[in-house]
Amino acid sequence: MPIILDKVSHIYEADTAMAVTALNNVSLVIPDGQFIGLIGHTGSGKSTLVQHLNGLLKATSGSIYFNGEDIDAEDFDKKRLRSKVGLVFQYPEYQLFEADVFSDVCFGPKNLGLTKKEVELRAYEALKLAGIEDEYFYQSPFDLSGGQKRRVAIAGVLAMKPDVLILDEPTAGLDPRGRDEILEQISKLKKETGITIMLVSHSMDDIAKYVDRIIVMNKGSVMLDDKPTEVFKQYERLEEVGLAAPQVTYIMKALHDRGYDVRIDINTIDEAKKEIMSYFAKLSAAKRGR
Amino acid sequence: MGIIKVKDLIFEYIRRDEEGNVEGITTAVDDVNLDISQGDFVSILGHNGSGKSTLAKHLNAILYPTEGTVWVDGKDTKNDEYLWDIRQTAGMVFQNPDNQIIGQVVEEDVGFGPENMGVPTKEIWERVEESLKAVGMYEFRKHSPNKLSGGQKQRVSIAGVIAMHPKCIILDEPTAMLDPKGRKEVIRAVRALNDVEKITVILITHYMEEVIYSDKVYVMDKGKIALQGTPREIFSQVERLRELRLDVPQVTLLAHELRQEGFPIAEGILTKEEFAEAIDRCADMI
Amino acid sequence: MLRDITLGQYYQTDSIIHRLDPRVKLVATIAFILSLFIFDGVAEYVIAALFLIIMIKLSKVPFKFMVKGMKAIVFLLAITIVFNLLLTPGEPVFTVWKLSITKEGIRLAAFLTIRLSFLVIGSSIMTLTTTPNQLTDGMESLMRPLKKIKVPVHEIAMMMSIALRFIPILMEETDKIMKAQMARGADFESGNFIKKAKSLIPLLVPLIISAFRRANDLAMAMEARCYRGGEHRTRMKPLCYKKRDFAAYAVILLYLAAGLMADRLVKMVVVLL
């Protein structure tokens, strides 16, 4: 179910002296099944943007269409929209409240008015998709480790069976392994379910490996919207707004500047390794040929 | 003896179930020894739950050893008499920027420590001014902390500690909740304190890029010190770090991966310049 | 949503009232409130009104900010007026069915309205011209004598100031948790009272847990910065009286004296004329 944003602006505390324009004329199309990275530094408007996608914030001007329907229309069912566009906030584990993991995940589907059996089935599936083992189901969520708590919170949103899943900084505060595990889980989830996923992040290194489209926000506007390689090619523009290409891109650039004929549109360690190896293979073949 | 010395430190706490019955004992810090010299920049790495924060809390007498001893500037932390001296000597900055600012105005927050120490009013103002200048927050002195960014809040917290004129500052994951920009701001401020003011720094973190400049790195796992050495020595052990739920800077990882493929590149490459030089040598050898 | 609520309604500007020592403003406000309950006559209230108008002018705070505070008590005021009008015995002015409005009732209702609105406006002047911090400092200083009877004056002031610091943070957090639960289909608006109360659990549990975590963190941070209660503490911004503060005390005394002698003043004026 595609989402279309047409010239959406959002102004906090409009009509007062403290008015802040958080979104400025944003137009975007989010088709089915994409894996999107939404990047921008704090205050660039990315959190405001995602809260529009499931109707938690209302655009000051412009329209948002979900599956062709205007979400601000009188008769539009916002509750259904929220079940279809799942939003996982930053530090989602701080919203857990039930006595055990399973009941907490049941909260979402229960609000949808499903039967008890359906609710439990969905909770079970969601916990599995989030990578939580059965042995934790009846533990208190507060006894789990940071990474596990976060998975439970993500499961809580997955249990709504959304068509679009938005995760706001899902790796914030986790240690390196915890970060990789969550990202791998999300990538696996994408492969298994095929739903649209939008990953909000500050870190290019984190998302370069996974997404197939990157939207860069700056000062409430969309600055770049393209394939990762195309976005990272413009690393100078990214730097101007306090962002950066992945570190690997800079390493390849350093080699290129030293006269090595290697590609610089590279964003992951694996690609870099292959590129350097093939460069050396060519180099030694040339020397042997001489 | 260095500014901070830890000998055979063990810290245990009793886990209880919901009814309050003893379930077992968790050893959060297990036989740790440290000796930190005045003026050093020391980093403690470790995954979440490795015991690094528990260790940090011993260094300014928030927690006391179950066994073993911690000396701060030669004073045993178990001795109540020295409690306030120790907390003044070894200042502490915590993870959550919102939960450690007490004042409603930046300058008042920085003045909080000196007020508690009984510093005369005139001197408090001098200390607040120099501390805020040291972290580059002087122009924000009249602001409400609620209006600042995460990185700015953490710099205010650091200023609040420096205003107490400590010899040593312990930062317990000061950047964990910040964005990359805030992280850079904080690390830059901390490095300046170490370089310019010669304050001993103990930085606890799980961000690898932040420890590259330290004099010494300790890596913790299951309450024990699993690795120690210079950053280069530590980052030479890519596989071991992965076992410890950590990673290495991207450039170190790329060099390591190429080495695995047979490239004659040394372990422990830390910067892209070093990497390029290593590639130069590889090219020469063909 | 909740973030729109602004607490601590301090109005930033520079006026003689803003610059007064918070202790003066606290004492003045208390004196003014007391005067409203002692005063009992038209002449007295004219003096109170004059005093109030002069203070509003001096404070340079737009009048509409003062009236804002009135909104909160409109309901209370309405009830008071109705009860006093209808239930005060005395000489009836006109009667409908069994209820009669009396002369005494009208008089009482009028006085109560004036008292309550003057009270609200008077205390608004204090809160609008004094930062929450200055207020707690002022209270701590004024209540210091109570220490002798073991009232934890410093602790109370510290608690108030911490509460003021954390209210905006917890407000924002409430907003965030609410949104997060709404993203999971929670509904905080519809349903009857019991259903509404029940729907608050997913909001309140995380909020309370978070508040405790913050309290714990803050206590640790305060201890790490050598906080050990009010003993041995020095002040960065100690309160000290200036000449204008003594002048202000004199003005308050003059006002009280004028109010208490209002009747005699009126007579004097009449005699003189």
Question: SSE layout and pairings?
Answer:
The complex is a heterotrimer of chains A (290), B (286) and C (273).
Chain A: E1 3-12, E2 20-30, E3 35-39, H1 46-53, E4 61-66, E5 69-70, H2 78-84, E6 85-88, H3 101-111, H4 116-129, H5 146-158, E7 164-168, H6 176-193, E8 196-201, H7 204-208, E9 213-218, E10 221-226, H8 228-233, H9 235-240, H10 247-257, H11 269-289
Parallel strand pairs in A: 3-8, 3-9, 6-7, 7-8
Antiparallel strand pairs in A: 1-2, 1-4, 4-5, 9-10
Helix pairs in contact in A: 3-4, 3-5, 4-5
Chain B: E1 4-16, E2 22-36, E3 41-46, H1 52-58, E4 67-72, E5 75-76, H2 83-89, E6 90-93, H3 106-117, H4 121-134, H5 150-162, E7 168-172, H6 180-196, E8 200-205, E9 216-221, E10 224-229, H7 231-235, H8 238-243, H9 250-260, H10 272-285
Parallel strand pairs in B: 3-8, 3-9, 6-7, 7-8
Antiparallel strand pairs in B: 1-2, 1-4, 4-5, 9-10
Helix pairs in contact in B: 3-4, 3-5, 4-5, 5-6
Chain C: H1 16-19, H2 22-38, H3 42-59, H4 63-71, H5 74-87, E1 92-96, E2 99-102, H6 103-129, H7 132-142, H8 153-183, H9 193-199, H10 201-224, H11 243-260, H12 262-272
Antiparallel strand pairs in C: 1-2
Beta-strand level of the residues of chain C, as a percent range?
under 5%
CATH class of chain B: Alpha Beta
Give a count of the beta strands of chain B, DSSP E runs of length 2 or more.
10
DSSP helix fraction of chain C:
55-70%
Largest sheet of chain B: 6 strands, mixed
Largest interface: A-B, 37 and 35 residues
Fraction of residues of chain B in helices?
A: 25-40%
Q: Which structural category do the helix and sheet elements of chain B fall into?
A: alpha/beta
From the alpha carbons, calculate the radius of gyration of chain C and give it in angstroms: 24 Å
CA-based shape of chain B = globular
Shape of chain C: flat
Number of strands of chain C: 2
Oligomer: heterotrimer
Instruction: Tell me the strand order in the biggest sheet of chain B.
Output: 6-7-8-3-9-10
Number of domains of chain B: 1
The number of helical elements of chain C comes to 12
Account of the 3D structure:
The complex is a heterotrimer of chains A (290), B (286) and C (273). Chain A is of the alpha/beta class and 290 residues long. Chain A contains eleven helices and ten strands. In chain A, helix 3 packs parallel to helix 5 (146-158) and helix 4 (116-129) packs across helix 5. The mean pLDDT of chain A is 91. Chain B has a six-stranded mixed sheet with strand order 6-7-8-3-9-10, sandwiched between helices. A four-stranded antiparallel sheet of chain B has the order 2-1-4-5, covered by helices on one side. Chain C is mainly alpha-helical. Chain C folds into two domains: 2-130 and 241-272, no CATH class; 153-224, no CATH class. Chain C has twelve helices and two strands; from the N terminus they run H-H-H-H-H-E-E-H-H-H-H-H-H-H. The termini of chain C are far apart. Chains in contact: A-B, A-C, B-C. Chain B binds chain C through residues 57, 60, 62, 84, 87-88, 91-92, 94, 96, 98-105, 107-108, 111-121, 124-125, 128, 145-146, 160-161, 164, and chain C through 131-133, 161-162, 164-165, 168-169, 213-214, 217-218, 220-228, 232-238.
